[in-house]
Structure prediction request, 171 residues.
Amino acid sequence: MKTSFLRKHLCITAFVVFLFSLVTYGDTSPFKVNANLPKDPVSAGGLIPVTITIDIEPNHHIYKDQVSVESADVTQFTLSSVTLPPGKRKYDQFLEKEVELYEKTVEIKVFLLVQNNTPPGANNIKLRIQYQGCSDKLCFAPRTEELTLPVQIEPPRLDSATSQGDGKLSP
Prediction:
């Protein structure tokens, strides 16, 4: 009897671990994160507009106050601005209060400043997008996704108002 009890609990534990790994580590996320930026080269010292899109499956949502974007390499690419659109106000049964959330699709507008010391040529922008979402029945753990975006960097543009020899402004 003790052996069957142990086997039963061992099987239940194995099943729970299996389900947990599918939910946590599986590629079945109801949230898909993508980013787009212009294909044109950008000068060091310039701004790069990036649009981050999160596609949200039906009967799911993400919380606006849990969405954030950061640069993984601030020595070359610094966030200049992040603009989140207004969310839908809705009573949340899990938090037991009214919140702003996103359903279907959300577009986040980001501007990145290319630092002057960024080497010319092919570079990669690494962005981290953090969010937390829920279905109608359960909430997922907060998630961080890292996107790598290729960009071509040109040397810094010289201001046409500077003279060629001494770097001083022309009269």
Q: What stands out?
A: Confidence is low (pLDDT under 50) at residues 13-22, 160-171. Helices lie at 2-25. Residues 107 and 125 are 18 Å apart (CA to CA). The first helix runs from residue 2 to 25.
